[in-house]
Design goal:
Blueprint: H1 2-16, H2 27-39, H3 49-71, H4 94-112, H5 114-125, H6 130-137, H7 141-161
Helix pairs in contact: 1-2, 1-3, 2-3, 3-4, 4-5, 4-7, 5-7, 6-7
Length: 163
């Protein structure tokens, strides 16, 4: 159990590095939220360790996404600009918009090509190497690299012009 917790914290730490400094969740809180949701997964046929961590990273991503969506809800202040008291010149909500735009783009990519979307989830959110992603998806490392290159280019284009 300790090894699982350490790996989940490593994944969560990687995700939290991309978040604003004033984020309400800490790494341990994100792990706890994900673990509660993982325990409720009764329909999943766990294949191996990488499959477990891939699903865990996806759940963590969704927890963070829900947090960002809640921040932007009108009843919680909507798109009001949040300013950190310790560093007034930086706006705290800049990354919130980015993560929601990225999630929307990933949803579009999933419709276009589900495998490429899974490669992005495992590599970007899960922190898996090319080899680990290859094993988790049961595809060659060359295919992972090709899908990764395509997905990054497609997402960059989609996020840069909104189309």
């Amino acid at each position: 159990m300790t090894l699982v917790e350490l790996e989940l914290k490593r994944i969560a730490h990687g995700l939290m590095r991309r978040e604003d400094n004033g984020h309400i969740l800490q790494t341990t809180g994100l792990v706890n939220e994900a673990f509660i949701k993982l325990v409720d997964q009764d329909r999943v046929q766990w294949q191996n360790r990488k499959h477990f961590y891939g699903i865990a990273s996806t759940i963590m991503r969704r927890v963070l996404l829900n947090y960002h969506r809640d921040l932007n809800r009108v009843k919680r202040g909507g798109v009001a600009v949040r300013v950190s008291l310790s560093n007034v010149d930086k706006l705290a909500s800049e990354k919130s918009v980015d993560i929601i735009a990225l999630e929307d783009a990933l949803n579009e990519l999933e419709i276009l090509d589900e495998r490429k979307c899974r490669v992005v989830e495992l590599r970007y959110y899960g922190g898996l190497s090319v080899q680990e992603t290859s094993e988790a998806l049961d595809i060659s490392t060359i295919t992972v690299m090709r899908d990764w290159d395509f997905a990054r280019a497609w997402l960059a284009r989609r996020l840069s012009n909104g189309n």
